[in-house]
Amino acid sequence: MASNTATMGNLPRGIGICTTIPDILYLPELIFGGLVWILVACTLVVPANPQGWVMFVSVFCFIMTFIWMVVFACGGHHNKGSWAAADFAYHGIAAFFYLSASVALARVTLEMKDGTNFRNYQLDISAVVFSYVATLLYFIHTILSAIRWKSF
C-alpha cells in the first residue's frame, strides 16, 4: 500500500516517488500518455489541426512528466516549497491541456463514425478513452499536489 508521508511536507527522493502519494501517479501518467501518443500516431490524420494538438499535448506531457519524475528521483529539488508549487502548477496545466486535447479528439472521432476506415475509428476510440484516463490522472495528481503544497 502506498504511504502518504510525502503529502505532509516532504517531497520524495529516489525510489520514494514510486511509493508516495501523489508521486505514484507518474508511471500511470506516462503509460496512458504514451498510449495516446502511439494510438493517434497510428491513425490517419484527417483533420490535421485537432490531431496535431492531441499529438503536441501527449508528446509534451510525456516528455515533461518523464523529466519531472527524473528530477524528483534524483533529488534535484532543494527549495521544497517552490518545487511543491511548481509540481502543482505543472500538473494543473497538464490536466487542462489533456482535457482540451481529449475533447478535440472525441469530436474528431465522432465525425469519423460514418467514415469507411473502421480500423482508424477503433484506434481513435481507444485514444479517446486513454486520453480521458490521462486527464483524470493528471487532475488527481493536481489535487494531491495542491494538498501537499498547502502543507508547507
From TrEMBL:
The chain crosses the membrane at residues 24-46, 52-76, 88-105, 125-147. Its main location: membrane. Residues 17-150 form the MARVEL domain. Keywords: Membrane, Transmembrane, Transmembrane helix. GO terms for cellular component: membrane. InterPro entries: MAL, Marvel, MARVEL-CKLF_proteins. Signal peptide: none annotated. The keyword Transmembrane helix applies. Pfam families: MARVEL. One of its GO terms (molecular function) is structural constituent of myelin sheath. One of its GO terms (biological process) is myelination. It is found in: Membrane. It is a multi-pass membrane protein. It comes from the Eukaryota. The keyword Nucleotide-binding does not apply. This is MARVEL domain-containing protein.
